[in-house]
Amino acid sequence: MARKLLLEHINVSGINTFDVYRSKGGYASVEKALKTMSPDDVVEEVKKSGLRGRGGAGFPTGMKWSFLAKPEGVARYLVCNADESEPGTFKDRYLMTHIPHLLIEGMIVSSFALGAKTSYIYVRGEMMPQIRILERAIAEAKNAGFLGKNILGTGYDLELYVQPGGGAYICGEETALLESLEGKRGNPRIKPPFPAIAGLYGCPTVVNNVESIAAVVPIINEGGEEYTKIGVGRSTGTKLISAGGNIKNPGVFEIELGLPVEEFLYSDEYCGGIANGKRLKAVVAGGSSVPILPANLFLKTINNEPRLMSYESLADGGFVSGTMMGSGGFIAFDEDQCIVRNTWNFTRFYHHESCGQCSPCREGTGWMEKVLHRLEHGHGKMSDMDLLVDVSKKIEGNTICPLGDAAAWPVASAIRHFRDEFEWHVTNASEAVSRNYGLAHYADPLPKKEETPA
Amino acid sequence: MKVTIDGIPVEVEPGTTILNAARQIGGDIVPPAMCYYSKLEGSGGKCRTCLVKVSKGSEKDPRPMPKLVASCRTTVMDGMEVQNITSPEVIEARKGIVEILLINHPLDCPICDQAGECDLQNLGFEHGAVKTRYEFDRRTFEKIDIGDKIQLHMTRCILCYRCVFTADQITDHRIHGILNRGDHSEISTYIKAAVDNDFSGNVIDVCPVGALTDKTFRFKNRVWFTKPVDAHRDCDHEKCNGKVTLWYKGEEVLRVTARKDKYGEVEEFICNTCRFDKKKTSDWVIEGPRKISHKSVISANHYEFKPLPVVKTNPQLMEKNKEQFERDTRL
Question: The whole model's pTM is what?
Answer without folding.
Answer: 0.89
